[in-house]
Design brief:
230 residues, Rossmann fold, 24% strand, 2 domains, alpha/beta, six-stranded mixed sheet
């Protein structure tokens, strides 16, 4: 579903921040993206959600070369992707309900479908009682859960999440991860960027690990694999 071949990325005339990135993600894959600060995780995420195009190499998504694709074609690809940004990017003038409903309205869903689906997802993330609240009166953790609900409400084919449990307590964090795993079992391909070693150890998924702009693809940790076996 996603293929990177010898991809490089640089900003303006600076040095490459990503070098010779090569990997593939099959439909239904679930990967963590890890690495130290400054390793290039945010830059790789930008390539994955088409926030940037590579400066060299080939990126194919859903069978299409994104570099040679037209602007309209890239917009259509982007509609298949859900993103949880680290800074949430909620619309301040919209309620929690309307922020989450926005992707469904863009997709042209009927009002009763939107109402039922949004209520269900807000209940799942524990915010059914705040559905009419504006982002400004919600805590950081609540805003984060709204951003997650908005990203997953349309059941995207690819879900990208940048530190999605960073502002959440452990109980809510594991609940959100369980939601991601449910989506994955239904066929959504998922990439989660995180520094949370405990979270990565708890869930049995391979890792895309960046270090100084270079990528390694690692299998699940032995600890996680052993826990899964028993």
């Amino acid at each position: 579903m996603i293929s990177f071949e010898h991809v490089g990325l640089r900003y303006n005339v600076g040095p490459e921040v990503l070098s010779d990135i090569t990997f593939t993600l099959e439909q239904g894959a679930f990967h963590f993206l890890s690495g130290p600060s400054g390793a290039g995780k945010t830059s790789l995420m930008k390539l994955l959600y088409l926030g940037h195009l590579p400066t060299r190499g080939v990126v194919k998504m859903f069978g299409q070369d994104v570099v040679t694709a037209s602007r309209t074609q890239r917009m259509m690809i982007r509609q298949r992707i859900g993103v949880v940004f680290q800074d949430f990017r909620l619309l301040p003038h919209l309620s929690a309900f309307d922020n989450v409903a926005l992707p469904l309205r863009i997709m042209g869903k009927k009002p009763h479908e939107i109402k039922n689906t949004v209520r269900e997802i807000l209940e799942w993330v524990g915010l059914s009682e705040q559905m009419n609240a504006l982002p400004s009166i919600l805590s950081g953790g609540q805003q984060q859960r709204i951003a997650i609900a908005r990203a997953v409400v349309g059941k995207p084919r690819l879900l990208l999440a940048d530190e999605p449990t960073g502002n959440l307590d452990d109980a809510i964090g594991y609940r959100i991860m369980s939601l991601f795993e449910q989506l994955n079992r239904m066929g959504t391909t998922i990439v989660i960027a995180t520094h949370n070693q405990q979270m990565m150890d708890h869930f049995n998924h391979p890792r895309l690990t960046l270090d100084k702009g270079h990528l390694a693809v690692l299998p699940p940790t032995q600890k996680a694999a052993l826990r899964e076996a028993y």
